[in-house]
Design brief:
The protein has about 240 residues and is mainly β. The chain is built from five helices and 13 strands. It has a single domain, classed as 4-Layer Sandwich (Glutamine Phosphoribosylpyrophosphate, subunit 1, domain 1), CATH 3.60.20.20. Strand 5 and strand 6 form a beta hairpin.
Amino acid sequence: MNPISLEKDIASTTYPGRGIVIGRSADGAKAVIAYFIMGRSENSRNRVFVETEDGIKTQAFDPSKLVDPSLIIYSPVRVLGNKTIVTNGDQTDTIYDLMNQQMTFEQSLRTREFEPDGPNYTPRISGIVKCSDGNMNYAMSILKSADGNPDCCERYTFSYDKPIAGLGRFIHTYMGDGNPLPSFEGEPTLVEIGNDSLDEFADKIWNALDADNKVSLFVRYIDIATGKSESKIINKNQ
């Protein structure tokens, strides 16, 4: 599999939904994480990312317009020791709590399935990055219905040991726009990760997202040697 341009892949559809990018910078020094959300409804678009003590959370931009918070208000990113958890739903807390009880990433997600938002049955996508002793590894997961049939939950976990510098993986909820929305298919896409600054990398992703549907973006760089991180949030609603 040859890596492709992350920006071109994002820009290839108006509605990839929510997306997670994890990889390693081309100089090998940094773990790279990105998470974005999009929205077609007023309720979904009425959101911003805000920082928390151990990550970020989604929040209503205009609380008076919030209709149903159940699937749109959650903590996409939390940090547990030397591990950074990133997901598209409240399974972030499930992973955090159960891994804190010595369960694995995959075991934690066995307690969850796709979102109950038929007929879309939006996949739950999750990622985890571990940086320790000058090394990094990461894993990604998707929980999805069987081609739109909610009777079966399909569970896939992809693990990346000693990730190659300059490469990453991109997973998102939908293959594109539609009614119902078609769930992501296959393994996470192999994408190029360069040596851009945090701001440059964030701007490339933000500018590639569809102008009408994009809502918020979070990017974090983690120094693999020290564990220190820097982050950036971009919100369409200011």
